[in-house]
Write a structure and sequence with these properties.
Elements: H1 3-23, H2 33-55, E1 78-79, E2 86-87, E3 102-104, E4 111-113
Antiparallel strand pairs: 1-2, 3-4
Length: 127
């Protein structure tokens, strides 16, 4: 389990404990309707924080957890012809190595993939 998840779970439990303590404390501010509503909302927020950090920690079937989504390529990614990392279909250059993955047709100016030999829009030879 990642340290950030552990910290999130502990903070969630702490927030829940403080909210329960405030709810049953008998303090003048906590016995009003407004005070009760606030402590219930804060307790629910702590619970959601705890559950959110808890639910991402278990892996299915005992297998290793998948890498974080930030390291995964976008869903519409294709491999860069130079470095092989995922490049989004709307990028003109690979953000990792700088290789042009898409260019513009010199005749019609429309975007074309760098591996095309002929422009699919106007038929101009590209290579």
């Amino acid at each position: 389990m990642k340290p950030a998840r552990v910290v999130g779970m502990v903070l969630g439990l702490g927030i829940m404990a403080l909210a329960v303590g405030a709810f049953f404390s008998g303090e003048p501010a906590s016995v009003t309707t407004q005070g009760r509503v606030v402590t219930i909302i804060v307790g629910l927020m702590g619970f959601l924080m705890f559950v959110n950090n808890l639910s991402g920690s278990a892996s299915k079937g005992g297998a290793k957890a998948q890498p974080e989504a930030a390291s995964a390529p976008p869903f519409d990614a294709r491999p860069c012809p130079s470095c092989g990392k995922g490049v989004s279909s709307d990028h003109r250059f690979c953000p990792y190595c700088g290789t042009a993955v898409r260019g513009a047709c010199p005749s019609c100016g429309k975007d074309v993939k760098s591996e095309f030999n002929v422009c699919p829009y106007c038929g101009t030879q590209l290579k």
